[in-house]
Every structure is written in C-alpha cells, then in structure tokens.
Design brief:
Layout lengths: L2 E3 L4 E3 L9 H15 L11 H8 L3 H14 L2 E4 L3 E4 L32 E2 L12 H14 L14 H15 L8 E4 L1 H15 L4 E5 L4 H9 L3 E5 L1 E2 L2 E2 L11 E4 L13 H14 L2 E5 L23 E6 L11 E4 L5 H10 L6 H12 L2 H24 L4 E3 L7 E4 L4 H11 L2 E2 L1 E2 L15 E4 L6 H14 L2
Parallel strand pairs: 5-17, 7-8, 7-11, 11-12, 12-13
Antiparallel strand pairs: 1-2, 3-4, 6-14, 9-10, 13-14, 15-16, 16-19, 18-19
Helix pairs in contact: 1-3, 2-3, 3-12, 4-10, 5-10, 6-9, 11-13, 12-13
Length: 472
C-alpha cells in the first residue's frame, strides 16, 4: 500500500517488510524519503501520535521507527523542536548531478548529526568544575614571578619549574620514580603517544601490542606512525599480558591502574608478567595513567613504572583532573631514551605554552591542585553512587572503584534497545563494542560505557533520568 502524507506533500511508499512487519516498512520508507530528498533536511516530522493516527498504525510503531532513524543519523530529535530530518541527510553523487548513490554507500556508523542535549560519553571531566578563580590566582603569581627567559624559545623538555614540581608530586601521589631531567612535557597524552610511536618506528619496531578494548584514536595514532597494533584480550583482571610472550611486539600500551574502558585494575601477576616480558625481550611498556587521582573504594593503585623505571615510560595528563583544553601532559622517560625522544620532539614540537606550564607548577605547589582533586573526587563519588542506585537491578554495574565512568552490562539484545531509546531521549551513549579492537579475540559483551563525570552539575540529574529511561 502507499499512504499519502498530505501535510508534507510527500508520499510514503509504505510496504510491510517480509518477516519484520509494518515498523520496518515505515522505517525504510522514511529513510528513503530522507535519502532521496523528498523530505528535505530540516523538515519537521509530525508527532508519533499524529503520524500513527494518519497511517492507522500503533503509536509505538512510529516511535520505534523514529528512534532507529535518529540512531542512524537520518533524523534528529530535540525537546522543544520535535523530530526533524537531519542536515546532510540526502546522499547525492555531486551537486546538480541528479544521480543518487546506492543505499550501501551511505555511512551510518558515525553519522553527521546534531550534538545531543545530554551526554554520558566517557572521556571528559565535568568542565564546569574547572577551578577558574584558583587557576587565575596561580596564573597571576606565575606571571609576576616568571623570569624573562621564560618568554623565549623553550627547552624541548618544557619548563624546569613544572618538571621539578611534577617529580615531587608523582613520587608522592603515584609512586613514580621521576628525575626532573627525565620528564618531558607535551601537549596532552596524544602528542606524547605520537612522539613515542615515531621514536619506536625509528628503532625499526613495526608492531605494538595494545589492549583489546581502548580508544580508536590512540590506535590510529600508532597506525599513522607506521606501527601495526596487536590486541591483548581483556578480562576482569585487566589485559592478558601473558600474551606478550611470543607476540612479536616491540612495545605495549597499557592502562594498568584503571583499564579503559572496562575499569579493571591490572593484577600483580599480570603486572609482573609485563615487566618480565620487557626485561627479557628489550621491549618497552607505555603506561597511560589517565585518571589515577580518582579512586574511591580503596587505596590508589601505584604506577607500574615503579616496578622498573628503565623499561616503562609513564604518561600522565591534566585532562581528567583539570580539563583537556589545557593541553597539558607529561612523560617520565627512561634515561637511555631521552635523546631519541627529544630528537623527535624537536622536529615537530607543538607543546603547551611556557606560561601555562608555570601556572600549573604554581597551582600544584600552592596546594590548590590537591584541594581541587579532593573536591572533585567527592563530586564524582556521589554521582557514581547515584548512578548505581538509579540503575538498580536493570544492569550489572562494574569498573566503578575508580575513574569517571562505569560499565553497565545488559541482557541479550539490551545494548541495541538502550542505544535506540537513548537516541530518542536525545542522550549521547556509547556501547562497549565501540572501543573494541577489530582483531580482538574476546567473547562479545553487551554493555554501555557511561561517563558519569561528563555532565555539568546542573545537567547531571536530567541526564541520569534520561539514562534510566533508556535502559531496557
């Protein structure tokens, strides 16, 4: 049958899809109308109630079709502005060509779409918690006391004031053996990883082990530097570092204190296995300590670097404790590698400014950094507890002893249902599978990675409510 949609001046060629029924037929009809341009970008669709009445079908059928198309990026849904056809929804072969690409050419995994009203995507702290007043006070003191040479061309290692301050802080807070002469400041973790990848490639290393779950942007940096990535399986005890033996990898990237994104802490046995592998093969361990300050239920897990400072490069950042926009990171580099790292950095340096480095040094020395971290730890722990209470028995929550995110394991089919419902709630969510290495040999796991640290204080309550509403 063909149903006329008079209010839009468009016909929906609505046919039940064999084996799937009217909903699938409606979804395909709307998708084709958006793809072809019969429904122009920005067009507001009728409410699910109105369209259901017009077509003589159940309202839930329309709501589910809308939710699926929102998830795919064909539609957007916002409170107050209704459901609309997404911008750039039409897929053409070129301006004025009049030729459409086949449906198979449409990229739907990462569609271009509007920013969601709410987000629980992991990777960011509450940016509203940035200590503006305390940071400004530290900046004023740093600027007043800065020597004239601080405004000249910098030492590629970064300002000595911050390197000395970090050496003391990392030893005290993370158990890191750090000589200021072996600390290299960089513009966040990404630059540090890229510098190390280029150094490894210059050493003719071609393959690097990574955790089976992790950030694709980090894998892309390694691949772009000419390194192949080999995934290590990840379970409740962290990465299976015993798989390093015989892997052919010349280095490994690990998140030992709080595996991202599963939240597991690398067990003592697996820590020892990683260090033993590095010693026996001459391999190098890159330790990403991305959120080591935020631990709630037990004493912080010390840095792996303390087990063998000659085989481990420790990488830290202010992105979670303060804000990613500062572009502030650091590496503690084994002495024998310093010249090689600095040679690479000197050719492509895009480090943070000297004034920001001096400000962070003053911020830490004054005690403001510790006070800020303590305050944010209380905030995040409260959110974590509220998340666990709100979810109840609808999902198994794990990975919550530390950090700014949690993993919610769902029953079979629950992940897909939750993501569709989240799209309808205008909530940004990511499944655990989003972080899986494409070659990882691990059983599938239906789960969501929930960044409870991401929302602002004012947005936390409605964001949590949207999550609860999205869970099956």
């Amino acid at each position: 049958m063909t149903e006329s949609w008079a209010t839009f001046g468009a016909d929906l060629h609505l046919e039940p899809t064999p084996g799937r029924g009217v909903r699938a037929g409606l979804t395909e009809a709307l998708r084709e109308a958006a793809r072809s341009g019969r429904l122009a970008p920005g067009t507001r669709l009728p409410s699910s109630r109105s369209l259901a009445a017009d077509l003589g079908i159940a309202r839930n059928t329309v709501a589910e079709a809308y939710a699926e198309l929102v998830a795919e990026g064909w539609l957007t849904a916002r409170r107050g502005s209704g459901t609309r056809v997404a911008e750039r929804a039409r897929v053409g072969a070129g301006a004025g060509s009049g030729v459409r690409r086949p449906a198979a050419a449409v990229p739907v995994r990462r569609p271009v779409r509007a920013q969601p009203s709410y987000s629980l995507k992991p990777g960011s702290p509450d940016l509203g918690g940035f200590p503006r007043a305390a940071w400004l006070a530290a900046a004023r003191r740093a600027l007043t006391e800065a020597p004239n040479e601080a405004f000249g061309y910098a030492d590629p290692r970064g300002r000595v004031e911050l390197r000395e301050t970090l050496a003391g802080y990392l030893a005290r807070a993370r158990g890191v053996y750090a000589d200021p002469e072996h600390i290299v400041l960089c513009a966040g973790f990404g630059q540090g990883l890229l510098l190390l990848a280029r150094m490894l490639r210059a050493r003719r290393i071609r393959e690097m082990a990574v955790e089976g779950y992790g950030l694709d942007v980090h894998r892309d940096l390694l691949t772009g530097a000419g390194l192949r990535t080999r995934p290590l399986a990840v379970d409740g005890a962290g990465a299976r570092t015993t798989e390093l033996a015989g892997s052919g990898a010349g280095a490994v990237l690990l998140t030992p204190a709080h595996q991202f994104p599963t939240g597991a802490a690398l067990t003592p046995g697996r820590r020892a296995a990683a260090v033993d592998w590095a010693r026996s093969t001459g391999g190098l361990i890159l330790e990403d300590d991305y959120d080591g300050e935020f631990r709630y239920d037990r004493q912080p897990v010390g840095a792996l670097q303390g087990l063998d400072p000659d085989r481990v490069v420790y990488l830290g950042t202010a992105s979670k404790s303060l804000a990613p926009g500062l572009r502030m990171g650091w590496m503690v580099v084994p002495g024998p590698l310093m010249d090689e790292v600095l040679a690479v950095k000197g050719r492509t340096d895009w480090s943070s400014s000297a004034l920001d480095q001096l400000t962070l040094a003053e911020f830490i020395r004054s005690g403001a950094y510790d006070r800020h971290v303590r305050g944010m730890r209380v905030r995040y722990r409260r959110r974590r507890d509220e998340l666990v209470a709100a979810v109840g028995d609808r999902a198994a929550v794990s990975g919550i002893a530390a950090g700014l995110h949690a993993v919610l394991d769902l029953p079979p089919g629950g992940e897909r249902a939750a993501l569709r419902s989240a799209a309808w709630q205008d909530l940004g969510l990511l499944p655990l599978s989003f972080f899986r290495h494409p070659d990882a040999a691990m059983p599938p796991r239906e789960a969501l990675v929930v960044g409870f640290g991401t929302p602002s204080q004012s947005a936390w309550a409605p964001t949590l409510a949207a999550l609860v509403a999205a869970l099956p």
